[in-house]
Amino acid sequence: MSNSLPRSIDAPELLRELAAIVGAKHVIGADGDLDPYVVDWRGRYRGTALAVVKPGNTAEVAAVVKACVARRVAIVPQGGNTGMCGAATPVGDGPMIVLRLDRLNRIRAVSRLGDAIAVDAGCILAQVQAAAEGVDRLFPLSLGAEGSCQIGGNLSTNAGGTAVLRYGTTRELTLGLEVVLPNGDILDVMTSLRKDSTSFDTKQLFIGAEGTLGIITGAVLKLFPRPRQRAVAFAKAGSIESVLDLLARARAALGDRINAFELMSRGQIEVIAENLPDVAIPFALDAPWYVLVEIVDTLASNDLNAALEQLLAAAFDDDLLSDALIAASETQAATFWKIRHSVSEGSKRAGYVISHDSAVPLEHQATFVTRVEQRIAALRPDARVVMHGHVGDGNIHILAIIPGVAPDQRDALQDTVRAVNAIVDEETSALGGSISAEHGIGIANRDRLARVTSPVEMALLRNVKQLLDPHDIMNPGKVLALPAG
């Protein structure tokens, strides 16, 4: 693809034009506080931007894109800036702006009959969840950053969250999209239809594309009946094989009532306990693996606690589990979930985190976990190898935490990062897995993607990018490496 971004432009002139489009108070220039917008959540990537621009509607987004295209100024779309891979950070050569979607925060319409909600892309995930609850419906996407992440970012990374087993990923929750294309045209496929076989499903191009093909400005999302009850338990297991056996039994006995089946290693919970004293751990950490199970039902008459107790008791009798605790109240259930949602923050405080987002087929998960842990420990004996994940959908997060790394020591650690990544990638690929199940590629995984993806598929990705964005205006250097020259 051609990259014709100039090295210098008349920045004041551009900023005046952008201010005329969105209003002067919605443009933050170099004389303002850009820091919150040019550093990623983990503090790994820092970039520079001519400005941060905050349009208030789709038409303004399109006008901003056209102004930037005319000057070959790159655009980095940014939602809540909660991503794990640097996809929303303005890193790279050439002039660029950060386009924030905060002001695109309207709930456009909610259909209780059609089980659909139309929203702006800048809506906070929790806002969408609340709007669904307002009509006695559920929007099931749920993850630790739901109080600050935005729907546009969730779509751009095809977020999974904790309820994939029952409801699927964001891709499966999306009915329609509105996208501003790299030339400033507006693609409006904001349909709520459940069945439509007219040609290509164009919206799928942009879900998971991390803003490299266009800017998502709106979406129509699926809603579901609200569960009337739930049962939540924490169980202790002696091996990953026992966890997988429990999952198979749970599926056979409970079917699609399984809302979540979350795995954490003992080391992962220890990291949380050590670094987040406000997170209560209501059980002894005396087993190598811990499973958080949640089952739900739309029928209030079914006794879910009894069903869950029966499942866990049988697993205990067959030596799959050493102990289990069923939440006696909603408060205790929330305590259990707080542990799971604290893994990122707890790990971040424990040291320099080399994190991975692999998915492997269920039948190979035990092999994957064992091999990766052994190889990382041999490479860096000082690393704390901890794990968590949505084990039921194959997604296991492997974290190698290196303690005591000061910010000025991070560059010296990059050989270790590359070596750990290579270990995880080799094992993931050998077992038919994916290196990114839900966090995306961004900057962090760009080179890894090229290493594990076939040349035919990489060529197809580049061809699609070239077709839609020939000047590499949209989020350059993310997912695909910048072209040479």
Describe the structure.
- With 485 residues, this protein is an alpha+beta fold.
- The protein is built from 15 helices and 19 strands.
- The chain has helices at residues 11-22, 35-38, 58-71, 125-133, 151-156, 164-167, 240-254, 266-275, 304-317, 330-341, 343-350, 365-379, 414-430, 446-452, 455-468; strands at residues 27-28, 51-53, 74-78, 96-100, 107-111, 116-120, 137-138, 174-180, 186-189, 215-222, 224-225, 229-237, 258-265, 289-297, 321-326, 352-355, 358-359, 384-390, 395-402.
- Helix 8 packs across helix 11 and helix 12 packs antiparallel against helix 13.
- The longest helix has 17 residues, at 414-430.
- It is globular, with a radius of gyration of 23 Å.
For the structure shown, list the relevant keywords:
485 residues, alpha+beta, eight-stranded antiparallel beta sheet, five-stranded antiparallel beta sheet, 19 strands, globular, disordered N terminus
Structural class: alpha+beta
Rg estimate, integer Å: 23 Å
Total strands:
19
User: What fraction, in percent, of the residue positions are helical?
Assistant: 25-40%
The biggest sheet amounts to: 8 strands, antiparallel
- For the termini, the CA-CA separation is 11 Å
Coarse morphology: globular
Q: How large a portion of the residues is in β-strands, by DSSP E?
A: 15-25%
Oligomer: single chain
Overall pLDDT, averaged? 93
Summed up, the helix count is 15
pLDDT < 50 runs, ≥5 residues: 1-6
